[in-house]
Amino acid sequence: MGNRGMEDLIPLVNKMQDAFSAIGQNANLDLPQIAVVGGQSAGKSSVLENFVGNPLQRWGITMLKVMRVVEGLLPSGFGTTSPPLVLQLINCPTGKKFTDFDEVRLEIEAETDRVTGQNKGISPVPINLRVYSPHVLNLTLVDLPGMTKVPVGDQPPDIENQIRDMLMQFVTKDNCLLLAVSPANADLANSDALKIAKEVDPQGLRTIVDHQPDFDGFRDRRRYIGVVNRSQKDIDGRKDINAAMAAERKFFLTHPGYRHLAERMGTPYLQKTLNQQLTNHIRDTLPALRNKLQSQLLSIEKEVEEYKNFRPDDPSRKTKALLQQQQVHAAGWQQLHVDFEKCIEGSGDQIDTYELSGGARINRIFHERFPFELVKMEFDEKELRKEISYAIKNIHGIRTGLFTPDMAFETIVKRQIGKTKEPCQKCVDLVITELVTTVRSCTKKLAQYPMLREEMERIVTQHIRDRESRAKDQVMLLIDIELAYMNTNHEDFIGFAT
Length: 498
Fold this sequence. Notes:
Layout: H1 3-7, H2 9-23, E1 33-37, H3 44-52, E2 63-66, E3 85-91, H4 101-116, E4 127-133, E5 139-143, H5 159-171, E6 176-181, H6 192-200, E7 207-210, E8 224-225, H7 232-236, H8 241-254, H9 267-306, H10 315-345, H11 359-375, H12 381-396, H13 406-418, H14 421-442, H15 450-484
Parallel strand pairs: 1-5, 1-6, 3-4, 6-7, 7-8
Antiparallel strand pairs: 2-4, 3-5
């Protein structure tokens, strides 16, 4: 494919996204895209805003076109990106000035409030924003809601789970690249973006890390790139993007730790890298995407042919259609039950020979991931010996002890057992995620009934979430039982009586 053909790849996928958005369906096609993930206020929207550039009235000749009545740029601040925002940047040398960024931001906020409520609710319905400018490269990014743990405004108590479920709908897809945004002044061990990236892409095949350039804590195959966003003071002072880009460039050129990497850092380089990687990714996935689309087209044409002589005003047809709807509803639930059970138990007739799925993935969590999380817990032997020594001395008090008191042993061991609570909780979270993914996989046969499929997924997923807290309570109860009584009459102990 020539250079001209390569340039047309991203606009081609954009047209498909717009078509699916217009009909409210995705045709079960896993479109290649880049999803931007990160914690609440991690700077995702600021990074994307840097791509777009200065307010439109300062751009020169520019045209902005917005899908779904949205006319705007990205609002910034705590909890602002509630629905997914599909940002399509189109390189266009000429055009027409349309509006300014303030109007754009207010329109997005109004659309967000209409979809999610006025107090930071969330919605899986994406907002499509298309920007034409001579100062951007062809690029499409999905700005996902920031991960948060504390409800804000009228958000439901389970907002963390809702956001996580929404993120998983995007990031678990094989054709979705991840732009993981982490602030450089935060502890990387607690980075929400890297946690989600490691979970869904442990080999780092789909992940690009937007962070400080000296970070090597994540094994990604698509490199990491540092950028400098505007501070809140800069935003309040209405510092324009050109000045911010100049300051970013100066920072990387003059900083002793970064100047040797200056040509591979900064917003322009990040945008260029994303453009190249998305283009190459689309090129690699396009053949399979085309084959699947053609297969679905043939299937739909065959189904349309069956209704060639259909008359909606025929009374017998109406009665038959109603009965068919009831049968589809009942059969849908029954089929979901059968497929889910087979997928979990491993007795399905359709065996996946390319990757683990369903019960096999849950089995791997219990027998590989969970032991790994336990082994990963840090134990400082020197510090542990010091704690044991202090415990023994404090128990003896003013007396000189002859034997090691059992209480010292129990105190130290109980503290170590208590550290297993976090890995156990994480194990439950991973299993819940797999169960939800399995449910969505089992409803694929209902693709021609999207509303029924969506409602069935919602009901079953809600049931799983309702049982999640009970499962965690049982796990914590089991650990508390172990903490309540130390059975030293066990073969693991030196004094075990054979």
